[in-house]
Write a structure and sequence with these properties.
- By secondary structure, the chain is α+β, with helices and mostly antiparallel strands.
- The protein is 37% helix and 11% strand.
- A two-stranded antiparallel ribbon has the order 1-2. A two-stranded parallel sheet has the order 3-4.
- The radius of gyration is 18 Å and the shape is globular.
């Protein structure tokens, strides 16, 4: 069984993944799709969260140890974004 698990992991080590960053100024896809705000269960759209200087989107997982350990930094990002008129989700 260990050999069967090791083979896919070994094959993944040789796969080249081309990751391209999203450029500043990229048009927001699906900006009017309705999302559920996990903090207060209200429905929002990304478009409704854009402020005067833009929108900061953070992709995170609430159960990730890194995210949990950096919760204070994320709150600081939110405070800084708010004070500089940048929306954040």
């Amino acid at each position: 069984m260990k050999k069967l698990i090791f083979l896919p992991i070994l094959l993944c080590a040789f796969v080249k993944i081309d990751i391209k960053p999203i450029e500043i100024g990229t048009i927001l896809p699906n900006e009017n799709d309705t999302l559920l705000n996990a903090m207060n269960d209200q429905k929002i759209t990304l478009n409704s969260q854009i402020k005067e200087n833009g929108l900061l989107v953070i992709f995170s997982c609430n159960t990730c140890p890194f995210v949990i350990a950096n919760a204070d930094r994320i709150r600081l990002c939110q405070k800084t974004a708010s004070s500089t008129k940048i929306g954040m989700v």
